[in-house]
UniProtKB/TrEMBL annotation:
<feature type="transmembrane region" description="Helical">
    <location>
        <begin position="12"/>
        <end position="29"/>
    </location>
</feature>
<dbReference type="GO" id="GO:0006071">
    <property type="term" value="P:glycerol metabolic process"/>
</dbReference>
<dbReference type="GO" id="GO:0004144">
    <property type="term" value="F:diacylglycerol O-acyltransferase activity"/>
</dbReference>
<keyword id="KW-0444">Lipid biosynthesis</keyword>
<keyword id="KW-1133">Transmembrane helix</keyword>
<keyword id="KW-0012">Acyltransferase</keyword>
<feature type="transmembrane region" description="Helical">
    <location>
        <begin position="115"/>
        <end position="138"/>
    </location>
</feature>
<keyword id="KW-0319">Glycerol metabolism</keyword>
<dbReference type="GO" id="GO:0019432">
    <property type="term" value="P:triglyceride biosynthetic process"/>
</dbReference>
<comment type="similarity">
    <text>Belongs to the diacylglycerol acyltransferase family.</text>
</comment>
<dbReference type="InterPro" id="IPR007130">
    <property type="entry name" value="DAGAT"/>
</dbReference>
<keyword id="KW-0812">Transmembrane</keyword>
<keyword id="KW-0256">Endoplasmic reticulum</keyword>
<keyword id="KW-0443">Lipid metabolism</keyword>
<comment type="pathway">
    <text>Glycerolipid metabolism; triacylglycerol biosynthesis.</text>
</comment>
<keyword id="KW-0472">Membrane</keyword>
<dbReference type="GO" id="GO:0005789">
    <property type="term" value="C:endoplasmic reticulum membrane"/>
</dbReference>
Length: 296
């Protein structure tokens, strides 16, 4: 099946974001090592960038490119009608750079439509690269913003596995990093928010990866440094002959507790992990046959 031309253009524009991320890293390196005059310029741009809001025009433009039609198939489904407000959508796996989750955001007629996607605060701070994310409506995954959104009753999307889940990505098996990620459970209980586990089947197959030096790369993640090593036949462009199936599971209703105890959080964290396992076991025979799920 031929890939629509506009989807190819959209995919190439996505690569522009990857390029600007590399340029940002290089400029920061130069500013900290020799070209100190760059420091006030970068700080000034970051300050300007922090004030930028979502652009509906930019979102409409990217939606018109139908980026996900770059792949053989892209489906979005829910197992039950989702609530209109006070919702957390927790996505797994992160993948290399959350290609499917980001590209499906704002998709009309799906649970993505009104969702506010949270992303790495570090990525949002990167000069130029962070600007694209801000214009697209991605907000910071910091506690202050998270609490503000939950208090307002928003539909919030997040990737609990973070950098670590990106680092452990493998096309051979689905891997999620969740055993020590409990903060979102605490806040969901505090604000009486329902959690929908979401599994993106096929996200792990978009690139080749290696498992070499995995402990070292996970250690780098502690300093908010990316530990991913990936490639495809087209360098940083994902493999087009893939299928992506995003499945939103059944909602997990948590009791509202003003100050959840450690035991409360642990109990519902285990319930959440089991819900992810159940969702995977139910749909893996359709979308990931023979591919195991490994939980870190």
């Amino acid at each position: 099946m031929a890939i629509p031309f506009k989807s190819i253009i959209g995919t190439l524009l996505y690569q522009l974001w990857i390029v600007t991320m590399g340029i940002s890293l290089y400029l920061i390196y130069r500013a900290l090592t020799q070209d100190y005059w760059l420091i006030p310029i970068l700080l000034g741009f970051i300050g300007f960038q922090s004030k930028v809001q979502k652009s509906d025009m930019f979102v409409r433009f990217l939606k018109s490119l139908e980026i996900m039609k770059f792949f053989n198939k892209n489906t979005i489904q829910t197992l039950e009608k989702v609530r209109d407000k006070n919702v957390i959508f927790a996505f797994h796996p992160h993948g290399i750079y959350s290609y499917s989750t980001i590209s499906n955001t704002h998709t009309t007629g799906t649970f993505f439509e009104n969702m506010v996607l949270l992303g790495s605060n570090m990525a949002l701070l990167f000069p130029i690269a962070g600007l694209f994310l801000k214009l697209y409506g991605i907000q910071g995954a910091n506690p202050q913003n998270f609490k503000k959104l939950l208090t307002s009753g928003a539909q919030v999307g997040l990737l609990p596995g973070g950098f670590e889940e990106a680092t452990i990505t493998s096309p051979k098996e689905n891997r999620i990093f969740i055993k020590q990620r409990k903060g979102f459970i605490y806040y969901a209980m505090k604000y009486g928010t329902i959690i929908y586990p979401v599994f993106v089947f096929g996200e792990n197959t978009l690139f080749n990866t290696i498992d070499w030096f995995l402990p070292l790369r996970l250690w780098l993640n502690k300093f908010k440094l990316a530990g991913t090593v990936f490639w495809s036949r087209f360098l940083t462009i994902p493999e087009p002959n893939r299928e992506i199936h995003t499945v939103c599971g059944r909602g997990i209703v948590l009791p509202q507790v003003e100050k959840p105890s450690r035991e409360d959080v642990e109990k519902y964290h285990q319930i959440y992990i089991q819900a992810v396992k159940d969702l995977y076991d139910e749909y893996a025979p359709l979308y990931a046959k023979g591919i195991p799920l490994k939980i870190f």
